[in-house]
Amino acid sequence: MAIERTFSIIKPDATARNLTGAVNAIIEKAGLRIVAQKRIRMSREQAETFYAVHKARPFFGELVDFMISAPVVVQVLEGEGAIAKYRDVMGATDPSKAADGTIRKQHAKSIGENSVHGSDAAETAAIEIAQFFSGNEIVG
Ligand code: ATP
Ligand code: MG
After folding, report:
1. Full-prediction pTM beyond 0.70?
2. 72-87 pLDDT, tens digit each
3. Mutate to test the pocket of ligand 1, among 62, 69, 86, 114 (most ligand atoms within 8 A of CB)
4. pLDDT-derived band of residue 1, with 50, 70 and 90 as boundaries?
5. Nearest alpha-carbon partner for 29 in 99, 86, 91
6. Is the CB of 120 under 6 A from ligand 1?
7. Long-range pairs of 124-132 with CB within 8 A, sequence gap ≥ 24
């Protein structure tokens, strides 16, 4: 399998509970390398752009309000099959349905406040990485 890069966000519910290190430990134990990382406060415009695909969904306003409610940690993860691998490591969107050992099973509070984001495909990974990082900020 090819070496890929995926985009990750440690969401406000996790940074607020001091879980950045705990999440990173699970990521690294899974064999994914954190090749870029920064803690930011997302603007409303950034969050709306990032989740634009969900604009018509009833939870869109709540989702944007949540994403700007506290700092987030944006990351680029690299590894073999990183996109699908990180989705496995994160677990299902709804933590009550997430498998044992996943980040969301261990740490997420609810389907909305679910601790992490990970890109769902190669195309979205490239777009999401480019929204938050310039090339020289990613050091593999
Ligand atoms: P993400 O895109 O954040 O990695 P995902 O791909 O598992 O999560 P999506 O369907 O893309 O899930 O939903 C994006 C985000 O919107 C979810 O992670 C969650 O924070 C929020 N969300 C999804 N469904 C609901 C819902 N029914 N109620 C509230 N928030 C929701
Ligand atoms: Mg998604």
Report:
1. yes
2. 999 999 999 999 999 9
3. 114
4. confident
5. 86
6. yes
7. 124/7, 125/4, 125/5, 125/6, 125/7, 125/83, 128/7, 128/50, 129/5, 129/7, 129/76, 131/46, 131/49, 131/50, 132/7, 132/38, 132/40, 132/74
Mean pLDDT, the chain, integer: 98
Q: Tell me, using a 6 A CB cutoff, whether residue 71 lines ligand 1.
A: no
Q: Are 111 and 57 in contact (CB under 8 A)?
A: no
Nearest to 10 by CA among 84, 79, 107, 85: 107
| 129 closest CA partner among 91, 57, 78 | 78
Backbone angles phi, psi at 74, to 5 degrees: -95, 140
Ligand lying nearest the CA atom of residue 66: 1
- Whether 112 lines ligand 1, by a CB cut-off of 6 Å, is yes
Contact of 35 with 76, CB cutoff 8 Å: yes
**Structure tokens given for 113:** 């406040």
Residue with tokens 């990970």: 118
CB atoms within 10 A of CB 7: 26
